[in-house]
Amino acid sequence: EPEVTQTPSHQVTQMGQEVILRCVPISNHLYFYWYRQILGQKVEFLVSFYNNEISEKSEIFDDQFSVERPDGSNFTLKIRSTKLEDSAMYFCASRDRTGNTIYFGEGSWLTVV
Amino acid sequence: AQKVTQAQTEISVVEKEDVTLDCVYETRDTTYYLFWYKQPPSGELVFLIRRNSFDEQNEISGRYSWNFQKSTSSFNFTITASQVVDSAVYFCALSELSNFGNEKLTFGTGTRLTIIP
């Protein structure tokens, strides 16, 4: 069964460093998302991406965050200068044009020290 | 604004017991979708079910069943004959159609289910 894949599964970074989280969405999907889950809390929407541009973003997604689809398969989330409070599990997700089910990857656990 | 409430923070039951996880939602949309996701200890989010707002039929899938009641804005999830492998955090979520026919999910705070052998 097709799946969303994410790398790395876990990354530890120093505060102030840049981090790029990578995702390969399901191949025929057109809508892409990043969600975040701080440890022990609920999953929160960060950003959605369609037709090579951001279609919606939350208040969490400030200027330190950016997304990119550099080629036909990858979808990346960049945090420019990480803060301690960016420590969380980051989930990539995708959806096709007709379906309404959003499929999630296994997550990338980011620890900022 | 959309909101999903899962009032049960943690539930523990003995294996083989039935258990129901509650989900109550708020939305002003007339068309929406409701979801349940399972998050096992390994951390991934596993899709369980999607239900649209026009379909109030209950659904059964093996030991899992879902009860959607629009009148009470609830979408409850029942596991019958629970098993240890059912131990996980379960999230209820509500979708909102936004720009470009896009969709984003609003999650509840989750219910941690522990099945005691």
What's the short story on this structure?
The complex is a heterodimer of chains A (113) and B (117). With 113 residues, chain A is mostly beta strands. Helix content of chain A is 0%, strand content 50%.
Largest sheet of chain A: 7 strands, mixed
Strand content of chain B: over 45%
In whole angstroms, the N-to-C terminal distance of chain B is 41 Å
Total helices of chain B: the number is 0
Radius of gyration of chain B: 14 Å
Poorly predicted spans of chain A: none
The parts of chain B where pLDDT drops under 50 for at least 5 residues are: none
The count of DSSP E runs of length 2 or more, i.e. the number of strands of chain B, is 12
Q: Major β-sheet of chain B, in short?
A: 6 strands, mixed
Radius of gyration of chain A: 13 Å
- Specify the overall morphology of chain B: globular
Q: Termini of chain A, distance in Å? A: 36 Å
Strand content of chain A: over 45%
SS-based structural class of chain A? mainly beta
Shape of chain A: globular
Give the helix proportion of chain B (percent range): under 10%
The oligomeric state is heterodimer
